[in-house]
Amino acid sequence: MMNNAKIIIQLSIVTIAVFTGFVSIAQTQKKSLLTLEDIYSNRTYSQKGFGPVRWMKDNKGYSTLEANNEFGGKDIVRYDAVSGERNVLVSAEKLIPADRKEPLVIADYQWSKDDSKLLIFTNTRRVWRYNTRGDYWLLNLKTGKLQQLGKSVERTTMMFAKFSPDATRVAYESKYNIYVEDLATGRTTQITHDGGGNIINGTFDWVYEEELDCRDGFRWSPDGKNIAYWQSDTKAIGTFYLINNVDSIYSFPIPLPYPKVGTTLSAVKVGVVPANGGSTRWFAIPGDSRNHYLARMDFVPNSHEVMIQQLNRTQDSNFVWIGDTHTMKLENRLIETDEAFLDIHDDILWLDHEKYFTWSSEKDGWRHLYKVSRDGKTMSLITKGNFDVVQISCIDTAGGFVYYIASPENFTQRYLYRSRIDGTGIAERVTPANMAGQSSYQVSSNAQWAIQTFQNSATPPIVSLVKLPDHQTIKILEDNRALKAKFDDLHLNPKQFFKVDIGDDLLDAWMIKPVGFDPAKKYPLLFYVYGEPAGSTVQDSWQGDLWDQYMAQQGYVVMSVDNRGTKAPRGRAWRKSIYKQIGILASQDQSKAALKIFELYPFIDTSRVGIWGWSGGGQMTLNCMFRYPAIYKTGLAVSFVSDQRLYDATYQERYMGLLGNNAKGYHDGSPINYVSNLQGKLMIIHGTADDNVHYQSFERLVNELIRNNKLFDMMAYPMRSHGINERQNTSLHLRRTMEKFWKENL
């Protein structure tokens, strides 16, 4: 009895100890648990924003927004770069309209050339992707007068308001027409009158905005006498109808002019109209106006000429025209061509009293900046080396340098470099060596100062004022310290970067291991994929990784691989390799990478491999599931293209060529044609109001899955667009749905 009692007592002690240990572990986990509610409802891990910042015209200081605790809203504050002296330029009190009690909410702001007037964008509304329409107010800093602009047009319809060169007037677009308002008298002149219906003046149709990044569609002439603008005629474009079934008893259609592959484009032209009103004169740009793109247009400084970039339909030739706004005569100054496709770059700056301009090209195999004579006859390299110029940050003509973002050695990172404008010397790295990760810069026009935003996969954005070119940190403006502490408290495993040798190339990849990872155990693997030319998933930047980290916390190994053709600074051959084989080459690369990963990491349970992606990544998920069913056992595709012929002409034809010349490529790259190969478990998700990748793509795939007797899961989100984030509780519900699918099927 005594021995048994002793054993019982000992067992009880052990039980208590074990139980106590479990409580302690549970308490620790509870303290640092990452939840979907905190991510998508409570926004617990949202990073603190900074700005927007505007360098003042004297380059001696910058302005930014700061909260006003007395009146609410925000003050516009100026900081002197050298002394750090703070001055409130515009108090929120000055932004309270006479008939209101609260100050205007500043969505954006711009200074006049002499910094004496302030244009405020407020009360904004979304147009396709961004909030580009709303109301504008003007504050005269000398008199303190606050006045609302555009009183003669409907509220929240004003777009792209901008000062005339002398800041005596403001021009803006409203409901497809352009207006000019005299700031002293308030007199408004409508300078275009045919806008509305199928005619768009001063802004663009859906596809120009989405695929060519065209939104602001008019420009002041340097002398302020004229305005040059785009006009689009959407009459011949096919109309796609989104159906609203939720906001009224009877459904109603929402018409969307949308050019699908092989169909008619908008007829687009560029005209010039007097700023005080009158008739528009049009440039006679060669070619069928419905079979090319007028992708860029701007005035040459100190002149009456505009530069127009005209892409052909296949987007492998860019014709650069100089147009005289007095005579309307056009001259071709440059033709850029590529055997695959061309990207439009906004890197043009005029040099040496407008005798030369800068131009980006991949003609030597890397994206570099060139100096081109005004007549287009001479072209010389500015940046040199086996690397891509990712983005131009500043061209300092006085100092003789161009500052730009590049990453010659690590394609997942970004650093500031500079090269001499005359092309001599070698590229010089400006970002310090101890700042491994990604940095972006807002540089003053004299290149003496910059607002740097530094981040990496373990460090949320740190915003600093730095002095160039020695990159001396003057002041930390925002360090997101509280956010970093919250993440550290979660004790999650960091993202690990590695390379995968698939034989054809070395691919960049990352991995997140589960909390409490044990290499002796077997874990399910979840791939996150994109794989198309528009983006890259493998970047050493602070993306929060909240969903990926959440899934790792649930016991999954999470990985992502960048296949060839993704948007990485790896040279022309890398990016153009995908030409005419979207969905084909990428899924091959992904499958080869998966098999190599199985060899490298024995803790992967190869019987439990899932893949998921959004948009192009949704298409890639379907292609991988249908083409390589032995590898991918489970897949989740969100907002995907199932048949490439259903997507917009501008994007798809850029990377696939014309349908008539590449019918086999379109067929072989479309996952809908391989549904019969599906073996694993599949879930598909789409928003019914997706203006980008239409719900039609979802329904056609559903129809094909049914025809082939394939069982699957599906979820439709009524009247949600491509991002599936509108209306109450949507983001949380979406992620819960995704989580449920993975836990039940992987």
Question: How would you summarize the topology of this molecule?
Answer:
Blueprint: H1 2-31, H2 36-40, E1 54-55, E2 61-67, E3 74-80, E4 86-90, E5 108-111, E6 117-127, E7 130-140, E8 146-148, E9 158-163, E10 169-174, E11 177-182, E12 188-190, E13 199-201, H3 206-212, E14 218-220, E15 226-233, E16 239-244, E17 252-257, E18 267-274, E19 281-282, E20 292-299, E21 305-312, E22 317-324, E23 330-337, E24 350-351, E25 356-361, E26 368-373, E27 379-381, E28 389-396, E29 401-406, E30 415-420, E31 428-429, E32 438-443, E33 449-456, E34 459-467, E35 472-478, H4 481-490, E36 496-501, E37 506-512, E38 523-528, H5 546-553, E39 557-561, H6 572-576, H7 585-600, E40 604-614, H8 616-627, E41 634-638, H9 649-656, H10 663-669, E42 681-687, H11 695-707, E43 713-717, H12 730-745
Parallel strand pairs: 38-39, 38-40, 40-41, 41-42, 42-43
Antiparallel strand pairs: 1-2, 2-3, 3-4, 5-6, 6-7, 7-8, 7-9, 9-10, 10-11, 11-12, 13-15, 14-15, 15-18, 16-17, 18-19, 20-21, 21-22, 22-23, 24-25, 25-26, 26-27, 28-29, 29-30, 30-31, 32-33, 33-34, 34-35, 36-37, 37-39
